[in-house]
Every structure is written in C-alpha cells, then in structure tokens.
Amino acid sequence: MIKYLLKRLFWMVPLLVGISLISFLIMHLAPGDITTTEAGFNPKASQESRQKLREMYNLDKPLLVQYGLWLERMSTLDFGRSFASHQRPVFWEVTDDKGNVTPGLIQEALPITLLINMLSLGLIIIVALPLGIISALTQNRLPDRSITLFVFIGFAIPGFWLALILMYWTGVVHDWLPISGLHSLGFERMPWWGQMLDSMRHLALPVFVSALSGLAGISLFVRNGMLEVLHQDFVTTARAKGLPESAVVFRHALRNALLPLITLLGLAIPGLIGGSVIAESIFAIPGMGKLFYDAVLMRDFPVIMGILTIGSALTLLGNLLADLAYAWADPRIRRGVMQ
Amino acid sequence: MFAAALRHSALPLRLLLASLLLLAACSKPPTETASPDYGQTFAPEPGGTLISATIAEPSGLIPMIAGEAAASAIASNIFNTLLKYDKNLELTGELAQSWKVSPDQKTITFHLKPGMQWADGAPLTSADVLFTWKVVTDDKTRTPYGADFKLVVQAEAPDPLTFRVTYPQPYAPALDSWAGLQILPQHLLKDEDINTTAFARNPVGSSYYQLESWRHGESISLVRNAKSTQGQAMIQRLISRSIPDTATQFLELLANNIDYMGLDPVQYARVFPSRPDLSKKIALYKELGNNYTYMGFNLKHKPFDDIRVRKAINYAVDKQELIDGVLLGLGEPVASPYKPGTRWANPELKPYPYDPEKARELLRSAGFEDHDNDGILDRNGKPFSFEILTNNGNKQRELSAVLVQRRLKEIGIDASIRKVEWASFIERFIKTGDFDVVVLGWSLALDPDQYSIWHSSQQAPGQFNFIGYNNPHVDKLLEQGRLELNPDKRMKIYHEFAKILLEDSPIVYLYAGYGLPAIHKRVKGIDNPAPPAGIGHNSYDWYIPAPLRRKEITP
Amino acid sequence: MKQTLTKAFSNPLALIGFFIIATIMLLALFAPLIAPYDPDAIDVKAILLSPSAVHYMGTDGLGRDVFSRMLFGARISLLVGIVAVGIATAIGVVLGAIAGYYRGWVDVFIMRTVDVMLSIPTFFLILAVIAFLTPSIWNIMIVIGLTSWMGVTRLVRAEFLSLRNREFVMASQTLGARDARLIFTHLLPNSLTPVIVSSVLGVASAVLVESGLSFLGLGVQAPQASWGNILTDGKEYIQFAWWLSLFPGLAILITVLGYNLLGEGLRDVFDPRTSKNKL
C-alpha cells in the first residue's frame, strides 16, 4: 500500500513537467503576445512603447529561456503575475508593505468553479443513483427505456441553448430566478440566511444545466454496473438462500456495483476544475473557465500556464485519492489479495 | 414495494425539480403587480441607482495603464482631465478654467480652477498635473499612451493653479491630448510603483463619482463623490455589472435588471417594434459615433497597387446595401475618414456609387478579362482571387464581408473570407504585411490628426499605416495639419487631405454605424435627439425620480 | 450473427437511434437536391422572416433560407463528427495495440502520455489550440481528433492485454506467426467491438463540441453554415427570431440523441455481461 502510494507520487513529478511543457509549447504556437492585444490597434499607442512592454515582460527572450524562468518561479509556487490584469498575482494573494492585499486570480476563480461543479456532481449522483438502479431492475422494460431516453436527451441538448431558454422563461417571462451573476445587488446587507438563499437562487440554473448533461454518464454506469453484478453467481446464491429482494439489491448488489463509481468520480475531477467556459460566459460567472478563455484571447501566458498546471496537478491528486479510496473500499485490495 | 416505486419511476426527479422551483418562487418578496407608468414626467431629484452592463471587466482603474474601453468607461466617472469636449464637441475646461496658447504657438498655459479637492479631501493642484505628466512619460510606466506627452520638452507648475507645457514646435493635437490624460493624485501615488499599485483596484479621484465597491468579475459600484470638482451628479449610484454575453445582457434588459445597453440593429429595428410592451419601459436612442468601417487594400500587393483596380472594387461594392443589410438602415455612408456632420468631414465629397458596369470597364482597362470563360476574371493567365480577412467576434464586419464577397463575385472577382482571432490577426497578418484585403474599422480621436494612419513614415511593422499608403502630397498635408493651430485653416488642410484620399481610394469606406443605446424610461433628463457629443454628454444631469426607482435593500 | 442482429433489433431505442442517423445522413447526402434555395443566397429584403410556405424554417440575418442552410449544415456537423472520430480512433487503435502487445517501456511511455493528456481539461486544450491557430473546419476536426484518442487507446490496450494470454495467441506464437500477422488477423478484430461503440458515441460528442466552439466564435466560419453557427447567430433574439434557435437546437439534440441511442444499443448487444439471458 505504502509502496503503491510512493510509486504514484513519484510518477506525478514527470507527469507535471510533461504537462507544463505541452502547455507552454501550445501557448507559444500562437502568434502574438500581450503587447499585441493590449496596445495592438490603438493609434495612440506607439511602436516604442510596445517594444518596451515586450522587454519588460521578457517576451523577447528565446522560448527555452522563458520556460526556464517560469519553471524556476514555479518551484517556489510563484506563478507570477498576470500580464493582462494589471499585474495581479496569478495564483495566491500578495500583500504589499502598506498592508493592501491584492487577491490572486485563481484564488478567486477556483472556489466558484469548484462550488458549482461539486453541487452539480452532487445533484447528478442524487438523481442518477436511483435512476440507474431502477433502470437495472427493470432492464429493457418501459421504465428502463424512458429513463435512458431522458438522460440521453439531457446529454444531447446543447447547454447554451437550454440555458438561454430557461433564463428567458424563469427570468424574463416569470420572475422566479435571477438571470445571471452570482449575487444580487445589496447582497452584503442581507442576513446570513438571506445570503444563502440568494446564492442558491443564482446557482440553481447553472447547476441544473451542467448536471443535466452529466446525468447520462453516471446513471448508465450505475445501471450497467448493477446489471453486471446482478448476473453474477453470488447474487443467484443469495436469492437461492431466500433473501428478500431488497436485501439482495441494496446490501449485496449495490455496494459491489458502486465501487467502480469511485474511480469514475476520479475521472470526473478534471471536469470539476476546468469550469465550463460556455456556461460561465452565459451565466456571467467569474470562474476558471472564463479566466482561461480571457487569458487565451489576451495571450496572458502566466495565467494560462497557471491554470493548466494547477488544474492538472489537482487532477492528478484527485485521481490518486480516488485510487486510494477504491483500494481502501475494495476489501479484495485492502487485504492485499489482488493487484 | 418495488412495483409501486417503478410506477413512479420519475417521481424522485420530479419532486426534486418541483421543490427547487418552489423554494425559489416562494422565497422572493411579493412583486408589484402593476408597474409604474414610466412615461410620466417628474421634476429632477437626486438619488437612485443606474445599472449598466459591460462585456469585459476592467483590468484596473488607472486609465493610462489599463487602456481598454471598459476601464476608461468607468474611470472617466472617477477622474478628471484638464480639458473636455462640450455638447458641440468644442474644447472647454474641466480642471482648467482657462488656457492660453503663446504667440509662437509652442507653449500652452493652463489655469486651474481654485479650491479643488480630491475625494479624500486633499487639495488638487498643478503639482498633481505635473506628477501625472511625469508618470505617463516615464519609461518604466507600462503605458502605450506616452507618445503625445513625450513631445513636451518642458513641463512646469510655477504655482498651485498654473501648469505650463512647452513643445519644440507647434503641435495642433496637443489640446486634444490634454483632454485625454486623466489626472492622478500625487499624494497617494508618489511612492508607489504605478504598474503594480493597489491603487488600481482602489482609486481615489476628483470627479463626480468614487469607487464604492468592486466585486471582482461581478460588478463595480460607484457612489457620488461629495467633493467632486465638477459639482454634484444627480444619480446617487452607478453600478456596472460584468456580463460577457450580449444575449444575456439583452435578457437582463428585458427583465428590468439593467437600465442601459447598446443594442445591435436587429434588436433596435426588429425586436423592439415587435414588442409594444417593451416600449412602455425602455426608450431607444440613436447617435453617430466617431468611427467608421472600411475595406483596406494591401497597397504593396499586386494588383492593389493599381488605382484602377481599387476604384473598380469601390464601384463594385454597393454601400447602401451594406447599410440596409448589415445595419438595417441604421448607419450613414462615409466619404472621408471623419464623422459626418463635423467640421473635419468634407461636405463636398460623395462616396463612389454602385456601378458594376464601370467597375468591369476599369478592370478591363487594367487587363482583367474573363479569358477562359470560367466566370472569374483573369490577367496573364492568373485568376483574380484573394482572401478577405477580418477579425473574429465582430458580427457586423463578418456580415459586411459576406455581402462584399457576393458583389465581387458578380463582376467576376473570386474572394474568400477568413475570420481570425484578434491577436493572431495582428501578429500573423497585419504586422507581417501578409494579407490582401481586410475589413476593419477605425475608432478615432476627436482631433483630426491622422498622421499615424496615413503618413508614409508610419509603415514599419506594428505601426498603423499597415496598408502601405504613400502619397507625398498627403504627407505634407498631414505634417501641416499638426502645426496649424487655427481651426479654419486646419479644416481646409484636412478637407483637401480627404479629397485626395477619396481619389486615391486606398480603402473603400463602407459605413459609419449608429450607436443604439437603449435606456430604461425611469432615467430622465436625456437629450433627444443627441447633440454631436452623443446622448451621454450630460449623463451627470440624468435623474431617476423616486417613484420609479428599484426597490433596494436599505441598511 | 443472426443472434446479434435479432438482439439489436429487439432494442427499440437502438432502432430509433439507427433510423434517426440514417435519416440525417440521407438528408445530408442529398442536400443539394432537397434544398429549395442556395444556402448562400443573400436577400437583404428578406431579413429575419418567420417560417412560412416560402421559407419553411424562416430566414436569417442576411435573408438566407434557414432550411437550406440546415441541410448543408447537416453535412458539416456529420463531417466534423466522423472525421474527428476517425482520427481519434486511428491514433487510439495504433497506440493501444502497440502498448498492449509489446508492453515494457513502450507501454509505460504511451500510458503516461495518455495520463498527461487526460489530466489537461480537454475543452481548454481545444479552445487554446483553435484560438491560436485559425478556426477552420479542418483545424477543428484535427484538434478534436487529437484530443479524444485516449479513451480508445485504453480500450484497445485492455482488450489486447486480456486476449494476448489466451491460448490461441500462444498457439500462434508457438507456430511462429509474426507479430504483425498476430495483431492484424487475431487480436485487432476481437478488440474492435468496444471501439465501435466508443466511436459512435464519439461522433455525438464531436457534434456537441463543434456547436460549443461556434458559440465562442471559433467554430466553422462564415459563410459556411453549421448548426452551431446558425444557433449562435440568433442567440441575441431567441424570443423574436425563435426559428434561428429552435431548428438547429432540435437538430443537434436529435442527432446527438440518435448517435447515443445507437451506441448504447450496440454496447448492449456486444457486451455479454449485461445480457439478461445469462442464466
């Protein structure tokens, strides 16, 4: 077990280097840099001003040197400062000598994205589990078919289309939910329970729309997992022993079917951190997706690198945790029989 | 037990959804059933909140550093400049109460208004102006706007109310540049690094508003500045919400959550007329901005170096069709690189009419005919085909390119369209000169000087004369225009400049589109029709009567 | 074989999926014959007309007939899906086969690369690359293909790993069969069923990704019509020009649904473990 853990951690380092190298190269595929976008086409911005800007940002040095400089800073977890946002720190806040705190970009965007994605994942699981179970138990009959159809429709609807329709219906035609944003104006003056309610109302649509497309994957997974387990010998044995159906389903089949779900959740982790660019744009949510998209358009290299690296690191960590959780949960592995 | 569950297989989901909606619906305070009559007139009174939306959040609120439109829109409410433009686009004083140009036209002396204060109570004097000038011309400052101010050879503040600058030779655009430099407080910034200071997120200014709060990525809230050097604005609070998608912005406008939005022609001319209920609460305005859209030729590439070819294409493009199709009629044709109706636009010039026959004739005289009968003109065995480049994200330019492509096809020119993302566009095509034709726009300053766009010395990679225009007569006119401070003489210079430009046809003027703001009717005091400076010229006098204000949560 | 077909046809959802896809493919194939107008025919006097007998699905912002554009858009959406998946499958099968057959450090290297690619959020990667290159239909297909091969690699490798220890493989090896022959005639054909399922599902995802890219302005370029860009052009006026949103939205929905139903149906058919009649 410990050996396994150490081996995995050891592998993470070259993986991270590989990821950062790929990201760096892709970014520099792109023609143009921050001076192009910021002062690019403003007749008031002169050529020498722009050249000075390039020098200050180190953009005129060769690629390898730039990567080296970046890696050097990264080793101290200093992701640098954003080119485009007036030198705001990419990752964590910085306090200057006067005590003014400048919040970091990722520091602000990540919690929002994580919150929405976790709520969404939570909603998916709450809904997908019963759907999957019912599907498995009624295999090939009407409930199974209609659930399958329903979750597939959920997957197939283009998210931004559904979002706009729902926003129009719930926000313009009726006054049920806010249309966009995270907080109402006057949020600071609400009592704590008012604030909670306000946040929930703002998150309802984004969470719903992202959950809808994820339903299909998990409910089908649960269904197939259950079916596989239900057809195994030990289930037949349990039934032959005369156990009531509910015990068979819940105590035996379900627990075995759920184990791989942990791994699946592990695979869902990159999605947790890579916020959806489109949903955040439509709902005006300042999360990781929007941060990344803006950085791409502005050629804000430190931010792009920061997001890709942190995102990937968290993903690798998440996968590791998921594997560990699986290894712990599955008695076969825990007792060192398999693997 | 299971049979029952199966029958209601979607029950858990339905329950969940229903409870979510129920929760949401029940928890809102009861809304007004009847909305107030927004058409009524009211007397002006201070107070209220105006909410607008922006596509991109400013990166910081120090205008010389931030540079983008979103930043200057908000910062202009916080900071003042020495001079400003009045409703008729004439220069008048903002921080300066008067100014004098020396007889040799090289020195400008500004006299500041007495008794001015910053929002934190510190006095605002010429020392602040001098300080700001030093910062903008400092090489370490990451600003692209230093060029105009670096021309100053001597800047001094002989007393707290006087600021004097001296140029090596008369510089006509000087006054316009001083109408664009926002003055910063020396007492707060003198020990700071302007590029990284926290002041950018917490600015202190001298104008009508000051920053109240900034929720990053969500909204910026400005509140009235009691110590404003310009008097008091009527509206108490300005809130700018960050909403990146225009479809979402429009929904927010319809739902009364924002008060101000720039519409596109379809929303203005088709959506609103189809919904009479909207006109009860939202008013539409039309104003001509200081920009134009054009099709530019790379004058260094054949065959665009041939004036007959350029004129032919100019005749082949139906500009009225562009205005009707792309702008739904909401724009004006342009024949000079200036805003129609201003003194700098030459009233005698008329755009090239739509004349495909003449186009074909001109092309024939340049050697282009359809020798192989494939529908495409050719010369020396090579077909006349090229790529029209335009930037991503601008629907109007894209639609314009499509219409132009069609008209060109009709006279036998094969044009294809390529949309490129902005940074790539500049780096890979414009700077390298690797393009044939572009569809772009110019957003102009109010000063008529266009030296950086048309002078033959401005053709280096990264400079603005990227089409490669080279006309010695025009060069001389542009140089003269910078030296001539007399407005009437300047006007003649630029009129002649525009005339030559139209004759040379290095670009095809497509149109100047109207700005189409939609403003909620609760906002009163708007000048309609808009004066030359636009409806926003008196935005500080707009007011929102108490009965029409939003219900706000008060502390 | 007969058993497989019977099984396939007994699944009504898979049948629905099959018919949906067949219909869309036929419509796309015969688009030039069916379309009443030239999809690029501009008419500035007919801008944004609602559906009528003259224009079945109304007209768009330049007066072009939406129905005709939808038909040609079907070609684009299908083309993007199929080519992208083709690229991904080709890469995935080759890499998975090599990793699964040869094992050793080749396997380790390939699988680590898979891990690296899987750790980077895919949409971000696609977004960055397309934004940096020029958005064009070929770039889109290639980039989607280059970012979706990882799943196929794992599937093929897993199949190879489980097959290579079977007796028929060892028997062939003892008889002196060369690697290539083994791979191509024995291992690959038996590994293909999960690949087929994954490809069908992959087309569905590719169609959705293209529509997402169109929303961001990075999809198929004007004046070419794609369902994604017709939808995006009308997003500012969904309540007014509802036809610009409804028809492409439904088209994407139905097509993706069709592919998913077919793919899952095939998976049910090929996977003996979920068969109900196991006992």
What does this entry look like structurally?
The complex is a heterotrimer of chains A (339), B (555) and C (279). With 339 residues, chain A is mainly α. In chain A, 72% of the residues lie in helices and 1% in strands. Chain A has a two-stranded antiparallel ribbon. The model of chain A has no long low-confidence stretch (mean pLDDT 78). The N and C termini of chain A lie close together (11 Å). In chain A, helix 7 packs antiparallel against helix 8. Chain A is globular, with a radius of gyration of 25 Å. Chain B is an alpha+beta fold. Chain B has 19 helices and 22 strands. In chain B, the strands form six sheets. In chain B, strands 13, 14, 15, 18, 19, 20 and 21 form a seven-stranded mixed sheet that branches. Chain B has a four-stranded mixed sheet with strand order 1-10-9-8, with no helix packed on it. Chain B has a four-stranded antiparallel sheet with strand order 4-5-7-6, with helices on one face. In chain B, strand 16 and strand 17 form a beta hairpin. In chain B, helix 12 runs antiparallel to helix 14. The longest helix of chain B is centred in the last third of the chain and has 18 residues. Chain B starts with a helix and ends in a 35-residue tail after the last strand. The N terminus of chain B is likely disordered. By secondary structure, chain C is an all-alpha fold. Helices cover 72% and strands 0% of the residues of chain C. Chain C has twelve helices and no strands. Chain C is elongated, with a radius of gyration of 22 Å. The C terminus of chain C is likely disordered. Classes of the chains: A mainly alpha (339), B alpha+beta (555), C mainly alpha (279).
